[in-house]
Structure formats: C-alpha cells, structure tokens
Automatic annotation (TrEMBL):
PANTHER family: HTH-TYPE TRANSCRIPTIONAL REGULATOR TRMBL2. InterPro entries: TrmB-like, Tscrpt_reg_TrmB_N, WH-like_DNA-bd_sf, WH_DNA-bd_sf. This is Transcription regulator TrmB N-terminal domain-containing protein. Residues 17-76 form the Transcription regulator TrmB N-terminal domain. Coiled coil: none annotated. The lineage of its organism: Bacteria, Candidatus Zambryskiibacteriota. It holds the Pfam family TrmB.
Amino acid sequence: MAINQETEIEKSLYTLLKEFGLLESEINLYLISIKLGPATIASIAKNLGIPRPNVYKAILGLEKHGLAKFSEKKRYARTFVVEPPTVVLELLRKKRGIMDDLDRMLVGAMPNLLANYHQGETPTKIKVLQGKEQYVNAFFSILDEEGEETQFFGSAKDFVKFISWDEEYRWMAKRESRGIFVKSLLLPSEEAEFLHKTDIEHLREIRILQGMSPFVTAFQLYANKSLIWQPAAPIAVLIEDEYIVTMLRSIFEKLWEAAKLNV
C-alpha cells in the first residue's frame, strides 16, 4: 500500500474513532495496535513512547468501548490486541442509529416542548442571518419547531424570487408531510394570485391585502419566534421573544380580518 494512501486511511480511521468518543491516547493506542498485532504492554509502551501506567489507562478506555481485549494466557504472558476496524464501523453505525432515532424523536416533540416553554424574564434573543444559505436554513427550521400553524405576512413576489420556486416547493412538500398549516397574508402580485389558486391542495389559506404601499420585506411567526425577511440585502432577523411574537400575532390577525373584507 502506498504511503499516502495509508496515511489517508489512518486519518479516516482517526476521525471515526474521534466521533466514537475516544480520547487521543486511546486512539493512538488503537492505531499502533493495528500495526503491531498482539503485543505485550512493554512493546506497546516502547512504540508509543509513554509509561506503562498510561498504556493501561488507554487500554481500559478501549475495553469500555468494546474495542480491546487481552489474550487468555497467564497474566505474565498475556498480550494485548484490539478489535478489527470492522467492529469500529459496526459500533459507530449503531451509535449513529441511536442518535438518528433521538433526533427524530426530539424533532417530533419540539412543537410541544416549545408550546410549554415560557420565556418569563429571560433575555430576548436576536440573531441576524446573512446570505442565501442561512436564509433558506432558517426557512426550513420553522418546520422543525412548529407543529400546527405558521403565519406569513409580506411580499411573496420578493421572497420567492430570492429563495427560488424550487426551494418554495420543497418547503411546501415538507410542511404538508408534517401536517403544518400556513396562513399567508400577501401583498398583491402575480405570485400571490398563483399561490392563492392552489390553497386547498397545499394545506394553507392565502388572503391578499389590498391598499398598502408596496414593500419587499416580510415576517413569519412560529412557535415563540418571529423571522423578519429582508431579501434585498439579503438578511433575516430571528427574534426569540414571546412578547414580541404576541404583538406581531395581534397585528397579523387584525390585518388578516381586514383582508377578508376585501375578498
């Protein structure tokens, strides 16, 4: 095997072991043991350039992770050997599977957790998101935190023009698969009219608000947060404050009722 290829393989294995939660000393022990095969503590200590007590500590760490064992010989003649890299991969896949299950469970529970969360006197959190990637990521994060309904108010024309119809349709599909309803209060535009025609198909209600001076921005409400979209810059301002969200919801509902009268 070429030296460069061997180095790359070692780097990959190092990354896997790091992700598995091993300490630096444990990783070094594992990597050197693969090359040495069954070896005595004295031999391992010499190759690693560390005292024997430190080797024993690293061995204990590997044993806890199920990656090492001693031979069954008498104590004075025992050699140490690590499990093959296939075991590392198997254990890591199992760990990732558990983490994926926890992630799905937490995402599913997030709307209820946030519904029961009361900010009280804790400080308002404000975050400025810049660029299209952060903009789109914030848009999709809404679906992880809201379980029932989100409200959008502003210019559909400028919002969709910035994120693209592809991203809008992707978001719609994900929202619908999770059963999340959206109320959209939109300024007049061809995009707004187009979206309005397919309300029933896409788990939403759109109302078009007449008589306002045009603007390019929008805000969206979900859970205990509000996102203010500014596609011209582009930036998005994420505000986590239940009092501000309550105020914006009140404004939204008033304008929502006003738009109904225009139908």
